[in-house]
Amino acid sequence: MESLKVISLSIFDGFIDSIKNIYVIFYIDKTINQKLEKANDQSNQQSAKKKANKEKEKSKEKKSNVAFRVFQCCALNGGLFLLSILFFYHLLLPFLKLLITHFTDPGIWTYMNSILSWIFSCIWVVPLFLLSKIFNFFWFQDIADATYEFRRGKRTLIPSISLLLADVVFSLIIQSLFILQGNFISYIPYLGRILCFIHICLLYSLYSFEYKWFNQGYELHRRLKLVEYNWPYYIGFGLYLGLLTELSDSFIVKGCIFSMFFPLLIISSIDSAPTQRIDFPIPFFSLVVALPNSFVNRKLKSISNRSSTTPTKR
Predict the structure, then answer these.
(1) Tens digit of pLDDT for each residue in 240-270?
(2) 246-250 long-range contacts, Cβ below 8 Å, gap at least 24?
(3) Model pLDDT, residue 201
(4) Radius of gyration of the chain from Cα atoms?
(5) Which residue of 55, 76, 117, 307 is most buried, as measured by CB atoms within 10 A?
(6) Residue 271: per-residue pLDDT
(7) Measuring CA to CA, how many Å separate 31 from each of 45, 65, 271?
(8) Cβ partners under 8 Å of residue 200, min gap 6
(9) Cα(77)–Cα(183) distance, rounded to whole angstroms?
């Protein structure tokens, strides 16, 4: 009973933290820009006019625009992308159906519906989806970096470039396998959909906290352990975004909703952390980590065996 209470409180704490720390967005840009202007004024007093102008230009380049980046995410993914999809499928197609079935043979609409949907997907949905992914990648990073430096100071990245690249690639593989694991689990009778939803909440939390942990120099195994040892908190943290994306069965619509609200989770994650550690961690990532590890180990073993059987030249 005590354990159930701790789990419930941790889920509630995570949910509250995912919402309450969003308030940072209302003053972060103003505070950062005031600091930059103050630093620029000091440099003007201590430097020559020419040097001061250079510093002024640099300060303009560094100007914080976190709120504007969040607005851009909402405008592109929600205002342009999502609304255009809703307009096409829920207003334009029903109107055309009514028009065509009224004046022509209703059987014609079956073919026209498929053709129009295919054309719309090819010339609008797919290109805009790919474009939004590219923009979102840079905007999310800008939001995370500016918020982290504002709340926590200088970033501490993984020192080695090779380790950094390996960490990023391996992280993408783990996240992809984790999605597949959640999809497979969804077929379990009765509990499948709940377990799949838990996977989604944990994944959204991992996505948002990775920006902070990456800036702190945490490697992948440590980031996964943090989620596994505090899983109720991270379920709660990703809960509201998980519920919002579950409103639609469309992969594209889910992606639009995610991209609209995910920046708020990034901002919240910078100042959020679980207050207590659960005594019974669940190894959610054990299987998805073991699969690529076993593949790499087999490859290394085969390379080692091949090199050992290759005759040396005399």
Answers:
(1) 999 999 998 888 999 999 999 999 999 999 8
(2) 246/197, 246/200, 250/85
(3) 95
(4) 25
(5) 76
(6) 86
(7) 21, 11, 16
(8) 182, 238, 242, 245, 246
(9) 25
249 phi, psi to nearest 5 deg = -90, -10
Nearest C-alpha neighbor of 59 from the set 75, 44, 74: 44
Read off the pLDDT band of 100 (50, 70, 90). Answer: confident
Q: The tokens of 193 are what? A: 């959909």
